Amino acid sequence: MSNQERVLPKGVSAKDFDQALVRFREILGDDNVLVSEEYLAPYTKIMMAADDQDYIPSAAITLTTTEQVQDVVRACNQYKVPVWPISTGKNIGYGSAAPGETGQVVMDLRNMNKIIDVDPDVATALIEPGVTYQALYDYIKEKDYKLWLDPPAPSAVAGPVGNTLDRGVGYTPYGEHFLFQCGMEVVLPNGEVLRTGMGGIENSSAWQVYKWGYGPYLDGLFTQSNYGIVTKMELWLMPEPPAYRPFLIQYQDPEDIEEIVDTLRPLRISQIIPNAVVIAHALYDAASHVKRSKYYGGEGAISREAVERIKQEEGIGEWNVYAALYGTPEQIEVNWKIVEQAFGKSGKARIMYGDEAHEASSSFNYRAALMKGDMNMQEFGLYNWRGGGGSMWFAPVTTSKGAETRDQAELAQNILDKYGFDYVGEYIVGWRDMHHIIDLLYNRQDAEETKRAHDCFAELIDEFAKRGYGIYRTNPAFMEQVANTYGQTLRNVHTQLKKSFDPNDIIAPGRSGIRLDNDATS
Fold first, then answer.
1. Could you give the CA distance from residue 286 to residue 24 in angstroms, rounded to a whole number?
2. Does residue 129 sit in helix, strand or coil?
3. What's the helix, strand, coil split of the chain in %, to 5?
4. One of 55, 79, 94, 251 is an active-site residue; which one?
5. N-to-C CA span, the chain
6. pLDDT digits (tens, 9 = 90+) for 467-519
7. Per the omega criterion (within 30 degrees of 0), is the bond before 154 cis?
8. Cα torsion at 70, 72, 74, 75 (round to 10°)?
9. pLDDT per residue over 353-400, tens digit each?
């Protein structure tokens, strides 16, 4: 990249940036400081409806130790160079490996990939941010530990640390990932290392088992934030149960979502069904393994007639419930009777497990695998549904009440229809909440369609917020807008914390809408 083409960090002179690069090379070695266009290309690929030129890194650096992170952070403070930390860079649909804005240096932690410890007795794993789900899964299998992970989907290439820090979810009883995190090592913006929870006690044996430590609980401050760089994290793993029964329940009418949720809620709260249940719409189920063009080649959103043909020919319900029972065979039989009785009352549900479920649904195998912590990549098939490389995950939260869930589904479908996009959505059911996950798929090679996708996503955020539905996670192009929906008081608190932790604004400016230059408190 020539001097004329190079992208400098905001407010940093070419001289200061060059001096920062010299210092980075002293700390990391020449091969780990990337500045040429060829080597920066992997950090410029985005799927969101935004201008590529708004997400160009000034450089990328790869690190292998906590000490290197400390030294780099100190150099960044000296030269006022902002960094955008990533773990595995596979945050697909939420920004991938690109920086939050042009001119930031991507801090790539994928080579910090040590599995430091897995304790099979207390079912914990201490890992670095570059460890992937596949690597941890393989390690556990190699050691023959009877432990399960809780991966998202698709899972193998993503990392537990990054997913947990973004408050991601999975599909086993350990599906709420941050809930099952315990203890972090964090490099603060001044270069100091903080160990949260019990980690401040030297040689603590309880760092990975007791979340709270002493005084205010801090771990949450480092999720979806830019107050520090997490270099180690402890996860709780699920002991492998004696028996496991995945099952499928299909409903055929759009309005049945109310019955599904109201039937499911007491079973989840009471832990009769202990895992993070999925309620997948017909198009989400279909998109994982078929192309849209097989059923619809017209303009705008897919027609209702095409959806009905998909349901009939692919053996898919309008709503498809994927859940599982865990425990001893005796426990499973008792709980299965409760499930059958609850869902069988109206006569609308088709309730299946085993061979019947496998034959009924092309998605059952991969859903069953996810609910026992196995790796698979089938959901990458979503990107073949429409083609064109555009994907943005819209993720509002709802209470697990049927009327509210139906309201969200109808609101989303109406807005998507307005802009000519399909409702490719599902609900992931927690204990009392539900993550409403919608993949806005579009052709990013088409400028007009990209503009429509951007406007559609913006309207989804605003209209859902008007009805009291908050977004729990988003991509960098919309972080500012989502932050605004949560009110100025929260934004002021975030900014005050940023001032305290990072007065030079060097770690991921703009992450979750948090930056010093939008301070409303001064």
1. 47
2. coil
3. 40, 20, 40
4. 94
5. 39
6. 999 999 999 999 999 999 999 999 999 999 999 999 999 999 999 999 997 65
7. yes
8. 170
9. 999 999 999 899 999 999 999 988 889 999 999 999 999 999 999 999
Q: How far apart are CA 262 and CA 496, in angstroms?
A: 41
Long-range contact pairs involving 142-145 (C-beta distance under 8 Å, separation at least 24) = 143/118, 145/118, 145/120
In whole numbers, what is the pLDDT of the chain averaged over residues? 95
Here the tokens at position 454 are: 């951007």
Given the residues 23, 268, 473, 491, select the one marked as catalytic.
Answer: 473
| Paired residues of 507 in beta bridges | 83
Question: Per-residue pLDDT tens for 51-80?
Answer: 999 999 999 999 999 999 999 999 999 999
Q: Which residue has the tokens 């085993």?
A: 354
> Does the active-site annotation cover 383?
no
Catalytic residue among 39, 139, 244, 472: 472
The tokens of 53 are what?
Answer: 């030129």
Instruction: Report the percent of the chain where pLDDT is more than 90.
Output: 93
Q: Which long-range contacts (CB under 8 A, 24 or more apart) does 207-212 make?
A: 207/182, 207/183, 207/234, 208/119, 208/122, 208/124, 208/126, 208/182, 208/183, 208/234, 209/122, 209/124, 209/182, 210/182, 211/181, 211/182, 211/183
Question: What 3-state DSSP class applies to 431?
Answer: coil
